[in-house]
Design brief:
The chain is an all-alpha fold. It is 81% helix and 0% strand. It is built from 19 helices and no strands. It has a single domain, classed as Up-down Bundle (Growth Hormone, Chain: A), CATH 1.20.1250.
């Protein structure tokens, strides 16, 4: 097999290109994902799900949001298969294309009033496509970074794909905020909400331009040189590494839960239940999301000086505290307290999310690393992310916000137990 090998001590322009590629791709993919999450909280329910009950429309919209989390593990299996057999580069290009095409198509989809039940049916298919593409994205971007990292920099290189989350969120919600400023509510409801989906065309083109310049990682090249690729990587992962998959899955659950409670659920609850202006709440979230980036960077530095597992465990303990503060702060109606809560919550998320880029790949050998890390991460997304907006909104409607906080604390405890059970693994990246 002919391939160009990048030095594991990638420096200068090569290192910058690798880090830019891992950041740019995940930023584009998370932008696409968050555009849908924001639209689901604001406009998709009335447009695609006919119902006289606004809460029912919101729940149905959140249900399509959760559909992508079912697709993500399937995407991780397919893209992981080719990533472990063919290479990281071509797989990352394919995942980006899948996500981008699905997102742009949502922006072109006619509503229920025009094509009837075809509208929500096609919306579900496209949302599935988004999740399928993202299922192959995170693992490949993380491997691209950590498999090129110099000694002692695994967590800091591995945090670069994680920074795509706040970058994508700022781009997505920032664009929705601008539309709220320049368009009337009727214009936004009629056609303005489509623009963020269509903008994805430009962002995907940028991501592809960066990624097509990449070479394969040294770890993949060495694994292929040592032995033929696994014939069916997922079979090898399930057979030889079930403890790592299950433990990694539950270790990742908390990062999804805290994020989507602080973004999709909080936006829906704030605008529908607290009657806070949509534009104002988006401004609050945009201010708070910066603390996610700060938390990711702090956690990455700490993880290189210690180890990623201990940082993740500390983050779980912090999340329990966030759960206790959720009801009194988010439910207060005070804009200052809401912003403070969201800032604290997203800062804490940095500690349960940032080190995952180094931790999960370290559980698996290079020959099946793409499949193993992607499967654990995205399966965790089903339990931690896919059901969160629906479950949290139901808990808030029937029992109040304290039950939502209790749910978050319980999820953090589950992740803490999973991390405690996983010892550091010897697989080198």
């Amino acid at each position: 097999m002919n391939m160009t090998i990048t030095s594991p001590r990638a420096a200068g322009a090569t290192a910058r290109r690798i880090l830019l590629a891992s950041l740019a791709g995940t930023s584009v993919e998370f932008y696409d994902f968050y555009v849908y999450a924001t639209a689901a909280s604001l406009v998709l329910g009335p447009l695609f799900f006919p119902s006289a009950d606004a809460s029912a429309q919101l729940l149905l919209s959140y249900a399509t949001f959760g559909l992508a989390f079912v697709a993500r593990p399937l995407g991780s299996l397919v893209f992981g298969h080719f990533g472990d057999r063919v290479g990281r580069k071509s797989t990352l290009v394919a995942s980006l294309l899948m996500m981008g095409v699905s997102t742009v198509a949502v922006g072109l989809l006619p509503p229920y009033a025009v094509i009837g039940w075809w509208a929500p049916a096609i919306l579900c298919v496209l949302r599935f496509g988004q999740g399928f593409g993202l299922g192959g994205e995170w693992g490949g971007a993380a491997l691209l970074a950590v498999e090129n990292a110099p000694p002692g920099y695994r967590a800091r290189f591995g945090m670069m794909p994680q920074l795509g989350a706040p970058v994508g969120f700022i781009a997505a919600n920032g664009l929705f905020l601008l539309l709220g400023i320049f368009l009337t509510p009727d214009q936004f409801q009629s056609w303005g909400w489509r623009l963020p989906f269509l903008v994805s065309t430009v962002l995907v083109a940028l991501g592809l331009w960066v990624r097509l310049k990449l070479t394969e990682t040294p770890a993949f090249a060495a694994a292929v040189a040592h032995a033929p690729p696994a014939r069916v990587p997922v079979f090898e992962v399930v057979r030889d590494y079930p403890r790592e998959v299950i433990g990694g899955l539950f270790a990742a659950v908390v990062c999804f839960a805290i994020f989507y409670l602080s973004t999709a659920f909080a936006l829906g609850f704030g605008t529908k239940n607290l009657h806070i202006d949509r534009r104002l709440f988006l401004e609050i979230q945009l201010g708070a999301i910066l603390f996610l980036a700060v938390g990711i960077v702090a956690a990455g530095i700490w993880a290189d000086r210690g180890n990623p597992r201990k940082v993740l465990m500390a983050g779980c303990g912090m999340t329990v505290v966030v759960g206790l503060l959720l009801a009194p702060m988010l439910g207060s109606g005070s804009l200052a307290l809401i912003w403070l809560f969201l800032s604290l919550s997203l800062f804490t998320m940095g500690f349960v999310y940032g080190p995952l880029g180094a931790f999960l790949p370290g559980l698996f050998p290079a020959r099946v690393r793409y499949t193993g890390a992607s499967l654990a991460f995205n399966a965790g997304g089903i339990l931690g992310g896919g059901i969160v907006p629906v479950l949290a909104q139901t808990l808030a409607d029937r029992g109040g916000l304290p039950f939502v906080g209790l749910y978050l604390g319980s999820v953090a405890a589950i992740s803490l137990v999973a991390l405690w059970s996983l010892k550091r693994h010897p697989h080198l990246v």
